[in-house]
Design a protein that fits this description.
mainly beta, Ubiquitin-like (UB roll), 1 helix, 7 strands, globular
Amino acid sequence: MTGLRLKSLLPQGPLVEVTFKGEVISLPEGANLATALQEYGVEGFRQTPTRGVARSPFCMMGVCFDCLLEVDGVTRQSCMIEVRAGIDIRPARQSREGPYESL
């Protein structure tokens, strides 16, 4: 295919600083956090606890839990959060596998 380009789905608003894994990065204010992190280049959001398999956002509507991150100390679905200045984002800590992991 020639000339095919994907347009960014992120708002073109002002960038704000957030902390991701201890590193300060800039993301568009008000953007969907999962989408903004993927656009930034983050590939694996978390790892499954027993197998260590990398997981990334899948459904983008809060159903699959593959986008779990710890945001300001609380494990949340990143696809359900808007980017705001100063948030602290880290990989989620999980104590067990979800029911779908054994399939």
